Amino acid sequence: MANLIPVAKTVGANKIVPTISIPYPLGDPSTTKEQQWKLRYHRVGVALDALTIDVKEQTIFPVKI
Q1: Domain range list for the chain
Q2: Angle at 32 between CA 2 and CA 43, to 5 degrees
Q3: pTM confidence score
Protein backbone atom coordinates (compact mmCIF):
# COMPACT_ATOMS: atom_id res chain seq x y z
CA MET A 1 0.00 0.00 0.00
CA ALA A 2 1.45 3.33 -1.03
CA ASN A 3 0.34 6.91 -1.28
CA LEU A 4 3.26 8.01 -3.45
CA ILE A 5 2.83 5.77 -6.48
CA PRO A 6 5.76 7.20 -8.49
CA VAL A 7 8.11 6.51 -5.56
CA ALA A 8 6.78 2.97 -5.15
CA LYS A 9 7.36 2.36 -8.86
CA THR A 10 10.87 3.83 -8.71
CA VAL A 11 11.97 1.62 -5.82
CA GLY A 12 10.65 -1.45 -7.61
CA ALA A 13 7.54 -2.41 -5.67
CA ASN A 14 5.86 -5.13 -7.71
CA LYS A 15 2.38 -4.83 -6.18
CA ILE A 16 1.01 -1.38 -5.46
CA VAL A 17 -2.32 -0.54 -3.85
CA PRO A 18 -2.94 3.23 -3.84
CA THR A 19 -3.85 4.85 -0.54
CA ILE A 20 -5.58 8.17 0.10
CA SER A 21 -3.02 10.62 1.50
CA ILE A 22 0.21 10.82 3.44
CA PRO A 23 -1.23 11.73 6.87
CA TYR A 24 -4.29 9.46 6.46
CA PRO A 25 -3.37 6.59 4.13
CA LEU A 26 -6.48 4.53 4.83
CA GLY A 27 -9.05 7.09 5.82
CA ASP A 28 -10.45 10.55 5.36
CA PRO A 29 -11.15 12.35 8.65
CA SER A 30 -13.62 14.67 6.94
CA THR A 31 -16.02 11.75 6.40
CA THR A 32 -18.23 9.85 8.82
CA LYS A 33 -16.94 6.87 10.77
CA GLU A 34 -19.08 4.57 8.63
CA GLN A 35 -17.63 5.96 5.40
CA GLN A 36 -14.09 5.66 6.78
CA TRP A 37 -14.72 2.04 7.76
CA LYS A 38 -15.94 1.26 4.22
CA LEU A 39 -12.90 2.98 2.70
CA ARG A 40 -10.49 1.09 4.94
CA TYR A 41 -12.26 -2.24 4.54
CA HIS A 42 -12.18 -1.96 0.76
CA ARG A 43 -8.52 -0.92 0.48
CA VAL A 44 -7.29 -3.58 2.90
CA GLY A 45 -9.37 -6.14 0.97
CA VAL A 46 -7.72 -5.07 -2.29
CA ALA A 47 -4.30 -5.35 -0.64
CA LEU A 48 -5.03 -8.83 0.70
CA ASP A 49 -6.29 -9.94 -2.72
CA ALA A 50 -3.12 -8.53 -4.29
CA LEU A 51 -1.05 -10.81 -2.07
CA THR A 52 -2.69 -13.86 -3.62
CA ILE A 53 -2.07 -12.83 -7.24
CA ASP A 54 1.11 -13.82 -9.07
CA VAL A 55 2.44 -10.84 -11.03
CA LYS A 56 5.26 -10.73 -13.57
CA GLU A 57 5.70 -6.94 -13.64
CA GLN A 58 4.81 -3.93 -11.53
CA THR A 59 1.08 -3.86 -11.01
CA ILE A 60 -1.09 -1.09 -9.60
CA PHE A 61 -4.27 -2.59 -8.20
CA PRO A 62 -7.31 -0.37 -8.76
CA VAL A 63 -9.40 0.80 -5.84
CA LYS A 64 -12.78 2.46 -5.99
CA ILE A 65 -12.84 6.09 -5.08
Answers
A1: 14-60
A2: 25
A3: 0.85
